[in-house]
Amino acid sequence: MELSTQIRTFLLIVTTGIVLGILFDTYRVLRRRFRPPWLVTSLTDLLYCLLASAIAFTALLAGNWGELRFYVYIALLVGIIAYYRLVSQYVMKFIMALLLLITKLCHLTKLAVAFTIIKPVVFVTRTALWPFRFIGRKYSAWYKRRRPPPPEEIPPL
């Protein structure tokens, strides 16, 4: 294998390590935010491991046709360690801010839907049903005045 291919593969695997670090930080932020039960945590841990393996394998296939050499492990560790030492805290803050922004946008969307669709429909429905409710109240009051008194207790046989 040529030196240029090895350098290209090394840089690709370092980049893969950085991507895996970003993915893991995203997972950590989401898990801290939603605090899932232990079973869901175990399943998502397994899902992360499978996804990380698939990403690493795909990068390895793209870089050097799947040849697994010692420098590949070194490159992956260099990428992960460089990511965690240099930018992990900033990426986590960015992900938390992005999650907060998404939460606020969802809340605003919910309010917009409530005030543009749900509130007018409720108003129109109540307005349309108001005469029936009025008639129902009058009928109920009339029935309460006209109904026969409750029967006396029937003695047991």
From TrEMBL:
Bilayer-crossing residues are 6-26, 38-62, 68-87
NADP is among the record's keywords: no
Instruction: Tell me which UniProt keywords the record has, alphabetically.
Output: Membrane, Transmembrane, Transmembrane helix
- Write down a Pfam family by its short name: Spore_YabQ
Name-wise, this protein is Spore protein YabQ
